[in-house]
Amino acid sequence: MGLFERYLTVWVGLGILAGVGLGLVAPGAFQLIAGLEFAQVNLVVAVFIWVMIYPMMIQIDWHAVRDVGKKPQGLILTLVVNWLIKPFTMAALGVLFFHYLFAPWVDPQSASEYIAGMILLGVAPCTAMVFVWSQLVKGDPNYTLVQVSVNDIIMVFAFAPIAAFLLGVTNITVPWETLVLSTVLYVVLPLLAGMATRHALERRSPTAVADFVARLKPWSIVGLIATVVLLFGFQANTIVDKPLVIAMIAVPLMVQTYGIFLIAYLAAKALKLPHNVAGPACLIGTSNFFELAVAVAISLFGLNSGAALATVVGVLVEVPVMLSLVAIVNRTPHWFAPAAVAARAVMKEETR
Predict the structure, then answer these.
(1) Between the CA atoms of 246, 250, 252 and 253, what dihedral angle is there, to the nearest 10 degrees?
(2) Do residues 118 and 252 touch, judged by C-beta distance below 8 A?
(3) What is the per-residue pLDDT across 93-137, written as a single tens digit (0 to 9) for each?
(4) What's the rounded Cα separation, in Å, for the pair 122 and 80?
(5) 216-240 per-residue burial string, b: 16 or more CB within 10 A, e: under 16
(6) CB distance 129 to 111 below 8 Å
């Protein structure tokens, strides 16, 4: 790991502080940036996410993607966790904490909005950031791509029904333009750019891809930090004015993240997945597509709503917690079969 990856927690912490500080000092600048959007998707944030995931897209070897079907357990695990477990446990934890445990300190209307924001996070599995987590745990980039792509397809059809059910609203208005445009901006376009770049580099020399990616890696972290600065700048005043609320929202989100990871990681071990598939499979389920959750929360409940605040707190919690989970994955490769051993096992099954 390079300097940026090794001290990612420090850079993220500084990005949070910088975002809040700049949001308080120059709120007008952030209001201007916030207005640069189309279909509720902020275009500046989209550019930074491009910078963040483009290097990962270049690393994808499309000749290996076709082999993912030979080991479907990791994909099945991701889908079960993301769509049959995570949304419902998130809703249950929200109700437990804000309608019962924290009820004496939160008014009912605010409590309902915080729960709504948590639900939106739970129904939006990670799309862009998962490429960062996969890179940090040395995951299989081809397998990660397939997992993210399948999740995106399911999200188009499942996001609204599950959110409507969990929010208890039958006529929920989900901004479909936001959902589709976010997927195109954060996955499809950088993926196409990565394919074109890799093809051009492979024609140049055998080492051109690795050399080019090595030069781009620091920019990937810069994209992450810049995104963090913007999101916290947008909510700076609310974060400073309501520190206790921030802490209360963070508690169930942390419980949810560690709990989902534990379920997925133990299941991955039981399924005997190779480490480079188990890591990304578990991190996809524990991470969130916070860009989408923030956009939908603002669209449904308003910029200054409790739901919008909860989704931003999700970003605050996610980055340091996910880095701790990355550390766990990197320290436990001996729990899983090496990729080569797993591949031989698959070949043996196919010859039977």
Answers:
(1) 130
(2) yes
(3) 999 999 999 999 999 888 988 998 999 899 888 776 787 788 889
(4) 13
(5) bbeebbbbbbbbbbbbbbbbbebbe
(6) no
